[in-house]
């Protein structure tokens, strides 16, 4: 039971007393303030409005200053003065400059007045034009006479309140004399430009200097920087008057607050010294009971927790552990108490940083949480997530720590495995599995990244192994893989860390040079690579030789944009291959010009292949003794709109670089044999059709199929190959040649007597016919020595059992000498030029045709 | 200069009552920027006038400076003001051609006798109607272009680039030079328009374009500063390029801007009339003219001591022609009419001068002829035979460069 006038009513009585004293004090102070401040009110109102006006004038000054600067920039353009003084009349250069330079939306128009006050240039820049109001003649004259520098004019308000037109008139100087005036018409939206204020009702720009400020009328003027322009502001009368009331209210509130603080402190002191002790005694008994209950609950939770918990005292000794702690450490409580947990649990793999973090936290009495490797009683490591929390007693004194540890070994293991897997996946995506070099997508990504740099530069070396297919074909794919591995090692060891070597295709490699490197460094690298690649490689105890062609291109040579460098390097590579392989070719200006032409031709060529635009022309061959038509040589012709009918010399080399020869040959086979077959249906029989092939083409696997699909019964197919093939009579070539011969195809060695074939090699191939080169035939009638040479050449042909054909027979004399010398077949302009099918049909209908078979 | 000008203006005022009849000759020239060219002309005019005691037909003559500061608009404003003036008899023009090319038809419409001792623009004296009020005693671009081309080809130039000022004058010359080249079966190796106020970057671009074109010679029309920058820049190139310049570079101070070594590196030749050659050969007319020429109180003894001798020589000869025409016009009834009538009488006399006039460059008998469209040289006092090439000596003075001297 508690007395009515006991501990509860004492604080209430105390509060009522203090509150009443406070109210009396506040009312008295407020009255005093009102009486004192009232006389100063009107000055304060004026200052407040003036301060706001000056702030806004600064904003307008910045805006004007920006535009004056922009106009000065335009003013410095040489076309301005050239137009103004009449040296040029074409204003298009200035117009496009103005359109580019003056993009601020508030610039309406730029006008240039010459010394005679005539407009020589006007550019309207705004979409919705205000009508043009020219500056006053007196103003322009003053500027042109040099009496006024930069001049600002303010036009009438045209939008009902806040949008004003502003003119900036700038003198244009030449050699220190004013020769013209440049005028910019601007619109200024004062409402948008100036920050709103409840004190300001209205704002306007004026060019007339104002009288003194008249706050009574509510008008205030502020000069806009160094310009002869003033910002006129009309104050909001109600708001300005309200300023005084606000001031008095604020002062009264401040005095009230100060009194409140004083009385509050007084009340607190009373509570602390009188009321507080009385209430505290009552509460302490209840608190003690609750605390005891909580402690018991906490102890039970700690004992049964899954987490390993221990309490550590300030001497860093364990003073209490729960059963989970015993289980995690593999030690009994009796072995743990009074031991230092750090010394007991840490071992060789414990991360020193984590251990230090714990030690520092404990030394500085701070909480901490770390993942750390600890060791159990058997010496096995385990990962634990350890949280350390400092402990304080009731009086706030620090007396130890509680450590909570959780076993996270499994989680750590899974995390590590996942990281490793991710690394592997990333590596595989960007690396070639055979050579472990970065792959095409890696170099593409590097190129993309390079192109996004400021002022990007790309220097690229493209590498294509020469005769790699030959290694694969003759020694097998393992040998090929071995060679690729060797090349990859060369690339790895010769490149420096800034350079990126990559395998971008079967036998294609590339090196992206560092951004600062030039084509010179790339060229030197390519030469080093070539030197090493040319060294023979041992495979299965045998030396394997191969080479490589290199194309180098760089955007630093200024021929190519960075994104075109890859194409340029390709073009250089083609050139290197065309120059006989095993070389390094730089993308030079000459190559650039050539590449541009070739690019056009290549596009046309690709289309021509797609639509099968090539047509066969036929040059007839005749029996030297009887004059009978014994066959035709097929020659490729490409009808183009732009260049007319093109012969092979115009496109074959490019087609070879583009790997289109097989397709073109297939088209020719189909069309030529189709045409010859058509003639056969009309009763015109052409006994033999021969085709020109490069040595490389004879090795394509598609060739037998192309021939087989186009073959015509009763027509012999002959393939003419320039003799370098013969020189490389390798087993693989023999195989191809034999396959063709089994299909009934005849083999003719072209350019016979002018190539590099050895007689032994020739014998090895065993051709059906040889065709004497035209360069041996042409001088025949004029030079007896050639006649002897031709006779000897025919002798060689005979000796290997081949039929002898002579090409380039241009005169009657040629034909006679060759027939007497024993040539079997004659071909040349003397008899017939290459001709389309229709002409051939007509010719064949009128000459004797004999089966040469 | 100040004393002499003050004397010219003050003497008539002292000698005659304020209402007395007098005549004015206006000088429409750039007395601010290329002031030396204007002063050379003024010197020649003053020398000729002082020989007749500054009087024409007995009336005192005031020489009025009108500075157009190189601004074609101001130049035309001067012409308009002159046409309304009460005493203006004739205008003498300065070095610039642009204003007179642009406003030629308006000048003829305003019936202003305009005498040109320096500006070379071809179309100026070829009016579009028979009513032609513009007379020239100077180099004429229509003759200068073929002359420069002939000289360059005669000196063995094989590939010629054209650098022409980007003004009406320069662009007109570009067409003339190309035409002259094509008559010899040549096309320009490069054609470049040069900014009037040329930045170093622009000069670099121009020189690069010409060097890359492989030209061995350059024909140049330029003003002093840009011309000097070009000469210095070409001189710094590894391969020598020879420069034949129109005389626009002689506005004053060229030799200070382009040092002797640079001038020699480009074998600089400058178009002139043959005054220097005549001086070298000895001429009594020249001695007389120089007697009345003082600069800053110093009497000039030799033509080549002047920064732009041609300006002086032409102005002197042309003023002598003007005086003779004035005297002849004063004998006609029209002279007693208004100032407009006097100008018309002066023009008529200029077109039909009866007595020969002795000048430094020779005897003019007569200098001009009545103009009709098609008679393109009727208002040209000089012909192609009056053209010579000059070179700078090491001290920066212009000296005659004999033809075929290379």
3D architecture notes:
- The complex is a heterodimer of chains A (853) and B (406).
- In chain A, helix 1 packs antiparallel against helix 7 and helix 2 packs across helix 7.
- The longest helix of chain A has 68 residues.
- Chain A is built from 28 helices and 29 strands.
- Chain A has 853 residues and is an alpha+beta fold.
- Chain B is of the alpha/beta class.
- Helix content of chain B is 42%, strand content 18%.
- In chain B, the strands form 4 sheets. Chain B has a 7-stranded mixed sheet with strand order 8-7-9-10-11-16-17, with helices on both faces. In chain B, strands 2-3-1-4-5-6 form a 6-stranded mixed sheet, with helices on both faces. Chain B has a two-stranded antiparallel sheet with strand order 12-13.
- Chain B starts with a helix and ends in a 5-residue tail after the last strand.
- Classes of the chains: A alpha+beta (853), B alpha/beta (406).
- Chains A and B meet through helix 3 of A and helix 3 and helix 4 of B.
Share in helix of chain A: 40-55%
Quaternary state reads heterodimer
Task: Give the averaged pLDDT of chain B, no decimals.
Answer: 88
| Biggest sheet features of chain A | 8 strands, mixed, barrel
Global Rg of chain A = 51 Å
Taking pLDDT < 50 over at least 5 consecutive residues as the criterion, the unreliable ranges of chain B are: 1-19
Shape of chain B: globular
Which structural category fits the helices and strands of chain B?
Answer: alpha/beta
Q: Largest interface, with Cβ-Cβ < 8 Å?
A: A-B, 17 and 20 residues
> What is the general shape of chain A?
flat
Helix/strand structural class of chain A: alpha+beta
Strand order of the largest sheet of chain B: 8-7-9-10-11-16-17
Q: Could you tell me the radius of gyration of chain B in angstroms?
A: 21 Å
- Report the uncertain regions of chain A: 1-8
Count of DSSP strands of chain B = 17
């Amino acid at each position: 039971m508690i007395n009515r006038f006991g501990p509860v009513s004492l604080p209430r009585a105390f509060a009522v007393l203090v509150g009443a004293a406070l109210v009396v004090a506040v009312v008295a102070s407020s009255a005093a303030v009102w009486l004192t401040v009232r006389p100063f009110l009107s000055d304060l109102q004026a200052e407040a409005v003036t301060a706001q006006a000056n702030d806004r004038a600064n904003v307008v000054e910045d805006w004007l200053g920006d535009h004056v600067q922009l106009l000065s920039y335009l003013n410095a353009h040489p076309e301005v003065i050239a137009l103004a003084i009449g040296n040029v009349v074409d204003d298009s250069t200035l117009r496009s400059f103005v359109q580019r330079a003056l993009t601020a939306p508030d610039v309406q128009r730029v006008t240039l007045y010459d010394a005679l006050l005539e407009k020589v240039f006007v550019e309207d820049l705004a979409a919705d034009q205000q009508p043009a109001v020219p500056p006053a003649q007196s103003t322009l004259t003053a500027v042109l006479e040099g009496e006024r520098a930069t001049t600002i004019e303010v036009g009438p308000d045209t939008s009902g309140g806040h949008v004003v037109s502003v003119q900036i008139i700038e003198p244009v100087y030449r050699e220190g004399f004013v020769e013209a005036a440049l005028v910019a018409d601007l619109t200024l939206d004062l409402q948008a430009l100036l920050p709103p204020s409840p004190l300001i009702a209205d704002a306007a720009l004026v060019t007339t200097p104002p009288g003194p400020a008249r706050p009574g009328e509510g008008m205030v003027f502020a000069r806009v920087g160094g310009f002869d322009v003033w910002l006129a502001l009309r104050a909001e009368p109600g708001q300005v008057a309200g300023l005084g009331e606000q001031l008095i209210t604020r002062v009264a509130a401040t005095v009230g607050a100060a009194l409140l603080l004083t009385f509050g402190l007084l009340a607190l002191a009373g509570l602390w010294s009188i009321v507080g002790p009385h209430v505290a005694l009552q509460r302490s008994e209840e608190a003690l009971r609750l605390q005891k209950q909580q402690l018991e609950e906490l102890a039970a939770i700690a004992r049964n927790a899954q987490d390993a918990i221990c309490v550590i005292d300030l001497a860093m000794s364990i003073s209490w552990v729960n059963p989970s702690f015993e289980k995690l450490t593999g030690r009994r409580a009796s072995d743990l108490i009074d031991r230092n947990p750090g010394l007991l649990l840490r071992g060789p793999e414990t991360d020193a940083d984590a251990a230090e973090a714990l030690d520092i936290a404990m030394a500085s009495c701070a909480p901490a949480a770390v993942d750390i490797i600890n060791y159990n009683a058997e010496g096995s490591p385990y990962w634990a997530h350890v949280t350390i929390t400092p402990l304080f007693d009731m009086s706030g004194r620090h007396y130890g720590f509680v450590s909570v540890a959780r076993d996270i070994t499994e989680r750590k293991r899974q995390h590590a495995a996942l990281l490793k897997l991710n690394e592997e996946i990333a590596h595989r995506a960007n690396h070639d599995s055979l050579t472990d070099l970065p792959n095409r997508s890696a170099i593409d990504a590097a190129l993309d990244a390079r192109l996004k740099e400021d002022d990007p530069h790309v220097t690229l070396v493209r590498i294509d192994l020469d005769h790699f297919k030959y290694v694969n074909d003759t020694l097998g794919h393992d040998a090929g893989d071995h060679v690729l591995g060797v090349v990859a090692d060369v690339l790895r060891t010769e490149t420096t860390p800034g350079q990126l070597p990559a395998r971008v295709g079967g036998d294609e490699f590339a090196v992206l040079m560092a951004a600062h490197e030039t084509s010179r460094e790339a060229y030197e690298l390519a030469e080093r690579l070539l030197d090493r690649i040319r060294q023979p490689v041992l495979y299965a105890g045998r030396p394997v030789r191969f080479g490589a062609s290199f194309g180098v291109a760089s955007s630093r040579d200024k021929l190519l944009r960075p994104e075109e460098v890859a194409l340029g390097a390709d073009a250089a590579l083609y050139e290197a291959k065309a120059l006989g392989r095993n070389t390094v070719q730089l993308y030079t200006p000459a190559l650039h010009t050539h590449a541009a032409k070739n690019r056009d031709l290549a596009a046309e060529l690709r289309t021509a292949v797609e639509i099968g635009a090539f047509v066969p022309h036929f040059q007839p061959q005749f029996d030297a003794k009887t004059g009978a038509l014994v066959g035709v040589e097929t020659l490729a012709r490409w009808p183009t709109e732009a260049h007319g009918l093109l012969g092979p010399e115009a496109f074959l080399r490019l087609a070879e670089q583009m790997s289109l020869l097989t397709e073109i040959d297939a088209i020719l086979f189909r069309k030529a044999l189709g045409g010859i077959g058509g003639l056969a249906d009309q009763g015109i029989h052409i006994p033999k059709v021969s085709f020109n092939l490069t040595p490389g083409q004879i090795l394509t696997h598609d060739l037998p199929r192309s021939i087989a699909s186009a073959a015509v019964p009763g027509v012999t197919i002959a393939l003419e190959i320039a003799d370098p093939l013969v020189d490389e009579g390798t087993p693989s070539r023999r195989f191809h040649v034999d396959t063709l011969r089994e299909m009934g195809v005849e083999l003719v060695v072209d350019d016979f007597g002018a190539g590099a074939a050895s007689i032994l090699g020739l014998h090895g191939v065993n051709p059906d016919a040889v065709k004497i080169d035209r360069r041996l035939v042409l001088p025949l009638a004029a030079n007896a020595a050639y006649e002897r040479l031709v006779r000897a050449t025919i002798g060689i042909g005979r000796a290997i059992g081949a039929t002898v054909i002579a090409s380039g027979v241009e005169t009657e004399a040629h034909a006679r000498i060759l027939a007497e010398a024993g040539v079997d077949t004659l071909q040349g302009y003397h008899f017939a030029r290459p001709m389309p099918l229709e002409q051939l049909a007509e010719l064949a209908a009128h000459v004797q045709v004999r089966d040469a078979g | 200069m100040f004393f002499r000008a003050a004397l010219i203006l003050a003497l008539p005022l002292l000698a005659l009552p304020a209402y007395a009849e007098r005549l004015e000759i206006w000088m429409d020239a750039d007395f601010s920027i290329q002031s030396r060219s204007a002063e050379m002309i003024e010197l020649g005019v003053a020398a000729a006038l002082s020989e007749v005691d500054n009087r024409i037909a007995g009336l005192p003559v005031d020489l009025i400076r009108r500075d157009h500061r190189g601004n074609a608009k101001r130049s035309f404003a001067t012409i308009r003001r002159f046409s309304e003036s009460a005493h203006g008899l004739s205008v003498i023009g300065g070095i610039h051609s642009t204003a007179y090319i642009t406003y030629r038809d308006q000048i003829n419409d305003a019936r202003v006798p305009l005498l040109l001792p320096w500006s070379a623009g071809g179309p100026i004296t070829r009016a579009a109607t028979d009513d032609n009020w513009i007379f020239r005693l100077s180099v004429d671009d229509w003759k200068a272009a073929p002359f420069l081309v002939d000289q360059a080809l005669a000196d063995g130039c094989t590939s010629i680039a054209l650098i022409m000022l980007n003004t009406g004058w320069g662009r007109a010359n570009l067409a003339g030079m190309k035409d002259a080249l094509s008559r010899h079966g040549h096309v320009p190796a490069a054609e470049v328009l040069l900014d009037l106020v040329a930045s170093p970057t622009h000069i670099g671009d121009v020189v690069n374009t010409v060097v890359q074109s492989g030209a061995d010679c350059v024909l140049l029309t330029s003003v002093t500063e840009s011309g000097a920058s070009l000469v210095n820049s070409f001189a710094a190139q590894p391969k020598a390029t020879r420069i034949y310049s129109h005389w626009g570079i002689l506005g004053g101070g060229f030799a200070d801007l382009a040092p002797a070594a640079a001038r020699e590196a480009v074998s600089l030749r400058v178009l002139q009339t043959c005054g220097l050659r005549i001086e070298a050969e000895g001429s009594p007319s020249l001695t007389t003219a120089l007697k009345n020429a003082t600069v800053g109180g110093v009497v000039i003894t030799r033509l080549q001591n002047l920064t732009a001798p041609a300006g002086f020589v032409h102005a002197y000869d042309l003023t002598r022609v003007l005086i003779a025409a004035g005297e002849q016009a004063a004998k006609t009834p029209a002279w007693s009419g208004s100032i407009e009538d006097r100008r018309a009488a002066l023009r008529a006399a200029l077109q039909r001068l009866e007595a020969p006039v002795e000048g430094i460059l020779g005897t003019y008998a007569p200098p001009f002829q009545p103009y009709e469209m098609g008679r393109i040289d009727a208002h040209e006092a000089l012909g192609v035979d009056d053209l010579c090439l000059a070179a700078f000596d090491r001290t920066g003075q212009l000296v005659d460069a004999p033809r075929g001297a290379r």
